């Protein structure tokens, strides 16, 4: 079976899937130069025009969480979910809070924060209100004992590692205060994860890709 991860190494969702591949020790290829696009030829590969996607013997699978769940089912060694069904559901609940109720909400700020766009004042206020709701839910679910959902490394850690710093950066830039400043466990937790080989590798590769993108942008301006 040939598995290829397609996307780019600055993408939080690409890096989440890559962490799962590396932590589970799944042999794979990577095309790290695939950018999102709405061009018809790209939509034929990834129907929403997004990355990441996984090619499994040439068949395309989209959506990072669907991909991670597929990898967990197809490669049960080195499990990244607890066996107990309720504990497993709790991990998925936490991933949903991080990605749907925090990251997708904060994403509305990225245009202004990362690409120099305007931030509408209504959007600024709506995002602040919705993030406060998401944060409340997140705080009720997190364990940090030592992993985010309990004593086992799970896909929720892969999601948290790529998403929490991004959300912090965006909220610090817009509101002058990172969203997780009131959750003191977040910082040492991210440092602890960053000491694992797979997480250190993904972080280092993200930095190389970000520096290359910044240099290319500077050259073209
Ligand atoms: N829910 C998707 C989100 C993926 C996503 O938003 N990817 C970004 C790059 S990090 C993208 O492709 N954006 C382009 C677009 O939304 O058109 C997943 O989990 O895979």
Q: Describe it for me?
A:
This protein has 2 domains: 3-74, Glutaredoxin (3-Layer(aba) Sandwich), CATH 3.40.30.10; 85-220, Glutathione S-transferase Yfyf (Class Pi), Chain A, domain 2 (Up-down Bundle), CATH 1.20.1050. It contains 8 helices and 4 strands, in the order βαβαββαααααα. The protein has helices at residues 12-24, 40-43, 64-74, 85-115, 121-141, 155-175, 186-194, 197-220; strands at residues 3-6, 29-31, 53-56, 59-62. The protein has a 4-stranded mixed β-sheet with strand order 2-1-3-4, covered by helices on one side. A hairpin with a 2-residue loop joins β3 (53-56) and β4 (59-62). The radius of gyration is 17 Å and the shape is globular. Glutathione binds next to α1 and α3. Residues 11-13, 36, 49-52, 63-65 line the site of glutathione.
Bound chemical compounds: glutathione
Q: What is the residue-mean pLDDT, rounded to a whole number?
A: 97
Which secondary-structure class do the elements indicate? Answer: alpha+beta
Strand residue percentage: 5-15%
Order of helices and strands, N to C? EHEHEEHHHHHH
- The outline comes out as globular
């Amino acid at each position: 079976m040939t598995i290829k991860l397609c996307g780019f190494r600055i993408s939080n969702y690409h890096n989440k899937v890559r962490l799962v591949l590396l932590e589970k020790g799944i042999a794979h290829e990577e095309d790290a130069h695939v950018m999102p696009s709405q061009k018809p030829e790209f939509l034929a590969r990834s129907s929403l025009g997004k990355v990441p996607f996984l090619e499994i013997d040439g068949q395309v699978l989209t959506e990072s969480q669907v991909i991670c769940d597929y990898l967990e089912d197809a490669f049960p060694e080195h499990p990244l979910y607890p066996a107990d069904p309720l504990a497993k559901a709790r991990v998925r609940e936490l991933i949903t809070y991080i990605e749907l109720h925090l990251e997708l909400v904060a994403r509305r700020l990225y245009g202004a924060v990362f690409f120099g766009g305007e931030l509408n004042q209504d959007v600024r206020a709506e995002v602040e209100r919705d993030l406060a709701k998401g944060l409340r839910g997140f705080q009720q679910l997190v364990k940090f004992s030592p992993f985010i959902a309990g004593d086992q490394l799970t896909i929720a850690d892969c999601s948290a590692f790529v998403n929490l710093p991004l959300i912090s950066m965006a909220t610090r830039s817009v509101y002058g205060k990172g969203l997780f400043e009131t959750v003191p466990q977040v910082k040492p937790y991210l440092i602890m994860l960053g000491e694992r080989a797979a997480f250190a590798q993904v972080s280092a590769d993200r930095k190389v890709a970000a520096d290359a993108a910044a240099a290319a942008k500077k050259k073209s301006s």
